Inverse folding.
């Protein structure tokens, strides 16, 4: 078999803000055969996107290809001039971006952007290009293929945009398509449809691909071969089967282990009488002006009732827009509930945080998804943690300093980190500081809103383990909000499935295999498995898909 | 979809009208707050109290100010700008010719400065970080920092005194040929172009650079698009809103803010008229000039807003 792509000893250099040069890719070599799909897998910062972009001769601003060769169909992309590279881009190698929503120009119609490649390279007449685009839309099972092109990007859904960006990549009959985390931003039920569409189109055209992802299960469905990366270096490479079943490198095994389901096991508190810590009754919350009936115009949470017992954890799972974050905000009083009761530790709380006593606020803390935006970048870790200590406990400077050390120990961060600012920490470290801030209040209940979603699998597993440990030591309860079933399964005693603002089912992790409600069935069956045959073997009731997926 | 644009545009216009009413209120009462009694100033120190009283009655100065405001507003709406206190001429006649002069100067300046500023701003953004970009940035900062009377007097010194190419004063009424026109406008236009271009260049450059950093521009690059195509097809349409706003703000300066340039070149424009009116306490003239400036400003800003709305498909 002839190799389409040959990467030899590739080196990429980045210039840091201080002007120092750092090698971010250090001697990577691999080949791609015609029609073969190779996955680049690794956590964020491992250089997978950087390598993929060198296949188009492109390095992001601040980066530079400093050595090695990248031959694509006989041309070395490293030595080509910018003009020659432009000629290859779009015709021989094309790109499907991570966030199609950001990669479409908001000021132009979809059709204009999909056929732009044919215009730039003068491949065919405008009418032919349009006809070809409509064929591609059909092949990618997009709705209304004839007219969807005349819309603007903001008028179609995220899953549709992602498939439209694949059409954009395929219009010029490329030999190689680069997929850069194309399904990461999508819900699991949408991801399935998009993956299927990609797979069938690539197979039908015999097109080679590079699939960049951090999700082994997704990669297992689509890739023939896997390259595992870490810190800009290749760790391991092999066919998908080899990697999944016989990974040799410890890092690969760690990645695989992060996938192993780790059920929480029986609750330790089985012997004590369960006492409700938090009870939510018939809660309605939403946005927009209040209507005549006292309800907000857009209701994101509709009549939800649930209960959290002391020392036990409740998971809330659902896709984006199902109202799970709004529910957390209503419980915390950030967004006052329009109707319904929040009873905490036997006392009914005011709907708005302003109406709650300081003690009530202290006992219930919320941790947000993005530590990047939740931590003030101008303050040091020390200042961030000292604030709740002074506010809730009125500690003096000396007591605060001692407590900050304890808190850092609790979240397994070295004590000398206290003088750093959030920008000087890694994603996992930031999330730990974010969590330590909630712990500083010494709460009884912590609302965790997607706190592991922005983290890599290995880091997320470590954070989850930390949460479990702290729970044992401090007797905390968590409400754990996530779209990721495996995370919720790992830590929760009870799981609530939400859809369209309503609670559709309450289930225990032991029964996750057999949900009763059709939406739960669809949701749980859509979570990718490591088995490469999973996607092809998966059968979902089309009626169900139509009813619950806004594709 | 189009209903939404219509309602957005109408709401912009409504806001403009409301602003105009508030400004008219402010202009009227601010001018009545000026110290001294108009009748006394008009008649001089030697006037008898009876004469002053008579004049106050005749000018309705003895009425409560709210009635005078309403009288003035109704007059404005009917196109009656009032009569000048200083020389008994209708304000409309006084302003008329001067206003046309100001518009001519503003028009010619806009004709030169806007294309120059946009070209420099866009090219500087395209060649970001290059020597050219740095030269443009340093120059614009330099021009912003130099006061305009400095530029104007330097221009007079160089072109009129040493080189003797151009006349030092601009008598806009004595134009007989095209060369005359060019010679008369050359220096005021050069000075004003310097003053208003700098801001436009900086804003255009910033707006284009911001859109050049977006993922859709990287996507266009990865489609193999050329640099001009990336800038004109993908970056510019999305930077249009901030750019037209910067242009409108800069151009609004050409109506009321050109007093220094008008004085130095002795150009008979409306800004000079207003300053003269302040010296003679000619309230109707001051008020009318202020209203014209405000109207011009609102017209420019509202137009910029409407262009920004129309250029955004999410609003269209």
């Amino acid at each position: 078999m002839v190799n389409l792509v040959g990467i030899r000893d590739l080196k990429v250099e980045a210039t840091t803000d201080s002007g120092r040069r750092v090698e971010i890719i250090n001697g990577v070599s691999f080949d791609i055969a015609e029609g073969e799909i190779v996955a680049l897998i690794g956590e964020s910062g491992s250089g997978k996107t950087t390598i993929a972009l060198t296949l188009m001769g492109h390095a992001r601003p601040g980066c530079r290809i400093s050595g090695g060769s990248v031959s694509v169909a006989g041309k070395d992309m490293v030595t080509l001039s910018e003009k020659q590279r432009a000629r290859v881009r779009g015709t021989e190698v094309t790109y499907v971006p991570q966030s199609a929503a950001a990669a479409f120009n908001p000021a132009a119609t979809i059709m204009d952007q999909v056929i732009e490649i044919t215009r730039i390279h003068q491949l065919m007449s405008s009418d032919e290009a349009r006809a070809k685009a409509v064929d591609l839309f059909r092949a990618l099972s997009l709705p209304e293929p004839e007219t969807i092109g005349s819309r603007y990007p903001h008028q179609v859904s995220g899953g549709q945009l992602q498939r439209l960006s694949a059409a954009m990549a395929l219009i010029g009959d490329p030999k190689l398509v680069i997929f850069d985390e194309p399904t990461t931003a999508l819900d699991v039920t949408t991801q399935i449809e998009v993956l299927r569409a990609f797979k069938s189109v690539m197979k039908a055209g015999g097109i080679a691909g590079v699939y960049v992802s951090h999700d082994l299960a997704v990669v297992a469905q689509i890739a023939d071969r896997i390259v595992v990366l870490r810190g800009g270096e290749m760790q391991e490479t092999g066919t998908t089967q080899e990697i999944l079943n016989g990974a040799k490198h410890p890092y690969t095994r760690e990645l695989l282990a992060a996938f192993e389901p780790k059920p929480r096991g029986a609750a330790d508190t089985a012997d004590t009488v369960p006492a409700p810590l938090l009870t939510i009754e018939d809660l309605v919350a939403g946005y927009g002006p209040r209507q005549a009936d006292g309800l907000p115009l857009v209701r994101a949470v509709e009549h939800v009732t649930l209960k959290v017992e002391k020392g036990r954890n409740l998971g809330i799972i659902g896709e984006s827009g199902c109202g799970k974050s709004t529910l957390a905000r209503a419980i915390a009083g950030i967004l006052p509930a329009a109707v319904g009761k929040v009873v905490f530790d036997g006392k009914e709380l005011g709907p708005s945080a302003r109406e709650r006593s300081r003690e009530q606020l202290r006992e219930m803390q919320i941790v947000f998804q993005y530590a990047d935006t939740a931590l003030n970048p101008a303050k040091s870790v020390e200042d961030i943690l000292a604030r709740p200590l002074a506010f809730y406990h009125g500690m003096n400077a000396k007591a605060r300093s001692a407590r900050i050390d304890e808190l850092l120990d609790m979240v397994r961060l070295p004590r000398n980190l206290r003088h750093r600012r959030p920008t000087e920490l890694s994603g996992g470290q930031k999330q730990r500081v974010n969590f330590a801030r909630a712990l500083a209040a010494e709460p009884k209940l912590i609302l965790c809103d997607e706190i592991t979603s922005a983290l890599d699998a290995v880091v997320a597993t470590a954070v989850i383990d930390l949460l479990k440990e702290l729970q044992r030591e401090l007797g905390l309860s968590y409400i754990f909000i996530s779209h990721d079933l495996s995370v919720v399964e790992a830590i929760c005693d009870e799981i609530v499935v939400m859809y369209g603002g309503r609670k559709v089912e309450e289930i225990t992790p032991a029964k996750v295999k057999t949900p009763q409600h059709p939406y739960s069935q669809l949701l749980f069956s859509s979570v990718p498995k490591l088995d490469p045959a999973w996607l092809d073997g998966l059968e979902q009731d089309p009626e169900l898909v139509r009813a619950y997926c806004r594709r | 979809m189009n209903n939404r644009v219509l309602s957005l545009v109408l709401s912009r216009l409504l806001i403009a009208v409301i602003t105009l009413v508030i400004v008219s209120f402010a202009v009227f009462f601010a001018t009545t707050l000026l110290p001294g009694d108009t009748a006394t100033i008009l008649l001089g120190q030697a006037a008898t109290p009876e004469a002053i009283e008579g004049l106050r009655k005749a000018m309705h100065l003895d009425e409560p100010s709210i009635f005078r405001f309403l009288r003035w507003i109704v007059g404005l709406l009917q196109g009656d700008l009032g009569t000048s206190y200083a020389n008994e001429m209708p304000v409309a006649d006084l302003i008329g010719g001067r206003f046309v002069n100001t518009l001519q100067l503003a028009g010619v300046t806009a004709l030169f400065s806007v294309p120059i500023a946009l070209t420099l701003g866009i090219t500087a953004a395209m060649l970001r970080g290059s020597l050219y970009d740095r030269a443009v940035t340093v120059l614009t900062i330099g021009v912003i920092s130099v006061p305009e009377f400095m530029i104007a007097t330097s221009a007079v010194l160089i072109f009129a005194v040493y080189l003797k190419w151009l006349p030092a004063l601009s008598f806009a009424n004595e134009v007989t040929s095209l060369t005359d026109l060019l010679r008369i406008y050359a220096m005021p236009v050069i000075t004003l172009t310097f003053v208003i271009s700098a801001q436009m260049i900086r804003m255009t450059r910033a707006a284009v650079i911001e859109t050049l950093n977006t993922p859709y521009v990287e996507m266009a690059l990865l489609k193999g698009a050329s640099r001009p195509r990336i800038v004109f097809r993908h970056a510019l349409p999305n930077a249009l809103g901030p750019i037209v706003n910067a242009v409108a703000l800069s151009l609004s300066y050409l109506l009321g803010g050109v007093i220094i340039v008008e004085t130095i070149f002795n150009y008979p424009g409306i800004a000079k008229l207003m300053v003269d009116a302040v010296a003679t306490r000619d309230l109707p003239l001051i008020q009318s000039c202020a209203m014209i400036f405000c109207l011009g400003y609102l017209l420019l800003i509202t137009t910029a807003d409407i262009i920004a709305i129309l250029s955004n498909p999410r609003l269209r």
User: Anything to note?
Assistant: The longest strand of chain A covers residues 276-290. The mean pLDDT of chain A is 87. Residues 495 and 511 of chain A are 10 Å apart (CA to CA). Chain A touches chain B at residues 53, 56, 58, 60, 85-91, 94-95, 97, 99, 102-108, 116-117, 120-121, 152, 154, 168 (CB under 8 Å).
